[in-house]
Design a protein that fits this description.
single chain; alpha/beta
């Protein structure tokens, strides 16, 4: 597993039971994402829009006492079909095994300090993050998910008072959001319903998303 050292911003690779504790980023892809190749030239990478998002995740992980973070845009060498296939098949496990998942909602504006609780969730409800196929397993797999606005201000956690609101947005029962009931107990029809509420850039990506949520259909 290739991780970013949050202090040096260099890649480090780990295998088997030597993988350290790490944070993982969940986000929606935008123009100007930083790729594995881009990261080799840090100066050039820093000029791309996606660099700020990666740096934000690294800063947050450092604040949380973690030395490593994983980001899908640059930690996977997508020019290698073998590596990409392995990453897709490992994605659910990587999110599940993280210490914390940072759900970065790029389209949720920074707080002005004057919003009500309802205002906050009106912004969150409209976020693309809740409509994308890949973010379904990124919501459900980790033991802990923390949501952040576009300026990396903290919005709240999945397994808190947010659970009821997230359930309203996603149609996923709070039992699964707060880990009271194992995801493995969810019937395939329900999992497919969850997926049907989401979209992907490429039609075939929905099938890849099933590697996580639908246990063979996937692991969940």
């Amino acid at each position: 597993m290739r991780l970013i050292n949050v202090r040096t911003l260099e890649f480090e690779e780990f295998y088997g039971d030597r993988i350290p504790k790490y944070a993982i980023l969940s986000h929606t892809w935008e123009e100007g994402e930083v790729t594995f190749q881009d990261w080799q030239d840090r100066k050039a990478a820093s000029r791309k829009a996606g660099y700020v998002k990666i740096k934000g995740a690294c800063r947050r992980a450092h604040r949380d006492g973690l030395d490593y973070v994983w980001v899908d845009t640059n930690c996977i060498d997508k020019s290698s079909s073998a590596e990409l296939t392995e990453a897709i098949n490992s994605m659910f496990a990587w999110y599940r095994d993280s210490v914390v998942c940072y759900a970065y909602l790029a389209d949720v504006p920074p707080s002005t300090g004057r919003e009500t609780y309802d205002d906050l969730f009106n912004h969150m409800r409209k976020s693309r993050w809740f409509t994308r196929g890949w973010t379904l397993q990124e919501l459900l797999a980790p033991s802990r998910v923390v949501f952040f606005a576009s300026d990396w201000s903290r919005l709240g956690e999945r397994s808190s008072k947010f659970a009821n609101e997230i359930a309203k947005i996603t149609g996923i029962d709070t039992r699964y959001l707060v880990k009271e009931t194992p995801l493995a107990s969810v019937c395939i029809a329900t999992k497919m319903y969850w997926l049907s509420q989401r979209v992907t850039t490429r039609v075939e990506d929905i099938a890849y998303c099933c590697n996580g949520p639908c246990a063979c259909l996937g692991y969940l």
